[in-house]
Structure formats: structure tokens, C-alpha cells
Amino acid sequence: MTNKNHGLSIATDVTATIELIGKFGALLEKETTALNNADYKSVDGLQDEKKTMAKNYQSHIECLHRQRADIINIDLSLREKLISARTRFTDILKNNLKALDLAKTSSRRLVDRILEAARNAATEDRTNAYTSRGKMAVPTKGPISISVNRQL
Which residues, in sequence order, are CB contacts of 98 under 8 Å at separation 6+? Predict the structure, then answer.
């Protein structure tokens, strides 16, 4: 970003920002699709690029913010393209955040079910068990200590 205060520079910065928003939006759409398909390997493969694009996006937006008084001097059609790109990006981001939240919730429920099943198996009540001859059975196993890393 050039961050100079004349019309040509701000137009160049706005154009570069619009291009970045398009690329970042496409990456988020790809991640959202992968999340919706439970393709976590693909999601993982996108993370480095996503971090880089997020940093670049932040840098571009900060630069435009510093030049906000000059944005009025750019061509109306370019300003409208910027507004349109940011609006579309906001929608893409909302969908991505929703997909991330659903994946997180789904993973949490799966981990909770696994933990519950493991706890139930480990602490199964065997005090009412009887042998084939009708005598009270002695429990063969005691409770098992279970510890699971619940970080997602």
C-alpha cells in the first residue's frame, strides 16, 4: 500500500484492496465448503494462507482508514466497487464463521459422547451381577481413570 494522499495513490490502494477482498473471500468460501463437507484436512491446509491474507487485509484496511478523507476524491464507480466488495465479503465471512461454529459444536458433541461412553464403561455398576449358579458375582474390574484432552 502506498499511503500517499493524492487521488491516484488512493485509487491504486482501493483497487488493490478490492482485489485482496476478492481473493480472501474466495479462500473463505473454499474453507466454508470444506467445513460443510467435514473435510478437515483441506481446512487445515488453508490455514497458513488464511492467516497471511487476514494480515494483508488488516494492513489494507488500516491504510484506507488513514486515507479515509481522500476516498471521497476517487471515482464514484470505484467507491461503489469497494462498498460492494466489502458487503459481499461480510456475507462470506458470516457464512464462514457460522460453518466454523457448527464444526466446533459438532466436534464438542462428539468428544462429549466419547467421554460419556468411556466413563459409563469404566464405572459400570456390577454390584447386581450374578453368576450362572445364581450367586452374587464379584466385580472383576475396578473403575478406570480416564483423562482426555478436550482441546479442539
Answer: none
Instruction: Name every residue whose Cβ is closer than 8 Å to that of residue 146 and which is 6 or more positions away in sequence.
Output: 115, 118, 119, 122
Q: Where in the chain are the domains?
A: 7-122
Tens-level pLDDT at each residue, the chain (152 residues)? 554 444 458 999 999 999 999 999 999 999 999 999 999 999 999 999 999 999 999 999 999 999 989 988 899 999 999 999 999 999 999 999 999 999 999 888 888 888 888 877 766 655 556 666 767 666 555 555 555 565 54
Q: How many CB atoms lie within 10 A of CB 101?
A: 11
State the alpha helices, DSSP H only, in 37-75. 40-66
* Chain-centre distance for alpha carbon 41: 13
C-alpha cell at 110: 462428539
pTM of the model: 0.72
Residues 6+ apart with CB under 8 A from 106: none
- Return the C-alpha cell found at 77: 464507480
Q: Compute and round to an integer the Cα radius of gyration of the chain.
A: 27
| CA–CA dist 58, 61 (Å, integer) | 5
